[in-house]
Amino acid sequence: MKIVIVGGGFAGINLAKELTNVPDIQVTLIDKNNYNFFPPLIYQVATAYLEPSSISYPFRKFFAGKKNLQFRLGEVLSVNQAENKVILSNGELFYDRLIFASGAETSYFGMENVQKNAIPMKTLTDAIEMRNRLLQNMEKAVLTKNIRERRKLLTVVVAGGGPTGVEVSGMLAEMRNGILRKEYPELETAASNLYLVDGGNALLSPMSEASQKDTYEALTKMGVVVKLNTRVTDFKDDLVYFADGATIATKNLIWAAGVSAKQFEGISAESYGRGRRMATDGYNRVNGTQNIYAIGDTAIMTTDANFPDGHPQVAQVAIQQGKNLAKNFLFMLKNKPLNTFVYNDKGSMAIIGKNKAVVDIPKPKMHFKGIFAWMVWLFIHLISLITYRNRFKTFYNWMVAYFAKDQSYRMIIRPNKQEIR
């Protein structure tokens, strides 16, 4: 059985891992990057607390020695279902089973200026770009004599009150109150503001009211100006515009407000559901197809009784779907009945700052905050990294940052961008 996996995130890499060295199965994983990375920690790369290699690992190194796993660098352009063929930016592949684990991309809700001028927070490249831009603006603020220009360079608006928005806001607040005052003495008396804005009426909307309240209070004490029921409508000429007519002058709009799945030529419009996610049955097979599957953020399944509107786009769903689909492929080889996917919700969490986090556990229903929740967050994210090497490096960096209250990765590095050919 020839299995082609599109995307090497949580869903794709776990599917491939479960099929390692299985006779009669040949797996080819396609990705536009040559590495797997850990999205929940990209904000720490963006704020220079971790280096990129701490949360990423090359596919080919990971696949080395696994005889039935292959990697292909490229981007999917279209699918030819009649010929069981996927067309790439640099060739084509034939398949018996095609699995889309392509994740999601940043959604700007049709706002062209926001897309053009804001800083996204979805990929490792985004994280490095954010770090570069914020550091460059700090250097510009040191040089400018114009007070208004300096304030715009130092003011940061984070759009999106989900885990990413909360975590990057908390990290920036701690940096502003500590490291940056020490390293930029020229800016010690300069005015700056850090805003976290969200169109809803609460931060961390999927989590418990206790977590929402604790998060709001903690961020406010750290100096973050939280603005709820505040929807961004535009960002141009160094002004963030809101639906209520208000504006904030800044050169830094960090966009963590929404995602949407990718669409592919050759997959009919009837196969897509809400958020451009591929609609699947209980076995993750894409509706209207015979041998095409979707898992993780790019899939929406409404057959799970506990999640009739589809599963949340979180890591645990992707991991569990990847593993369940791998078992089903093994069952197919043995002509055994397949397992429908049922999500086991293990809880949700978000880190706010040093010794500050919130954790919700559904069964039994419990809520934690403070240093215990912070330690739980660290442990879960550490063991979720793909290799022991990643875990060791990240743990070491966290310990240095915790005790020294500093890190040394605030370097502006701009590699040349090259297209895959």
Q: Which terms summarize this structure?
A:
FAD/NAD(P)-binding domain, 33% helix, five-stranded parallel beta sheet, 2 domains, 12 helices, globular, 421 residues, alpha/beta
Sequence-ordered SSE layout with sheet pairings:
Elements: E1 2-6, H1 10-18, E2 26-31, E3 35-37, H2 42-46, E4 56-58, H3 59-63, E5 69-73, E6 76-80, E7 85-88, E8 91-94, E9 97-100, E10 104-106, H4 112-117, E11 119-120, H5 124-143, H6 147-154, E12 156-159, H7 163-177, H8 179-183, E13 194-197, H9 209-221, E14 224-227, E15 232-236, E16 239-242, E17 247-249, E18 252-255, E19 259-261, E20 278-280, E21 292-294, E22 299-301, H10 315-333, E23 348-353, E24 356-361, E25 366-369, H11 370-384, H12 388-404
Parallel strand pairs: 1-2, 1-9, 2-5, 9-21, 11-18, 12-13, 12-18, 13-14, 20-22
Antiparallel strand pairs: 3-4, 6-7, 7-8, 10-19, 15-16, 16-17, 23-24, 24-25
Low-confidence stretches: none
What class do helices, strands and sheet pairing give?
alpha/beta
CATH topology of the largest domain: FAD/NAD(P)-binding domain
Strand order of the largest sheet: 5-2-1-9-21
* Number of beta strands: 25
Percent of residues in helices:
25-40%
Q: In total, how many domains does the architecture comprise?
A: 2
* Number of continuous helical runs: 12
User: Under the CATH scheme, which class of the largest domain?
Assistant: Alpha Beta
Distance between the termini: 28 Å
Gross CATH architecture of the largest domain: 3-Layer(bba) Sandwich
The geometry reads as: globular
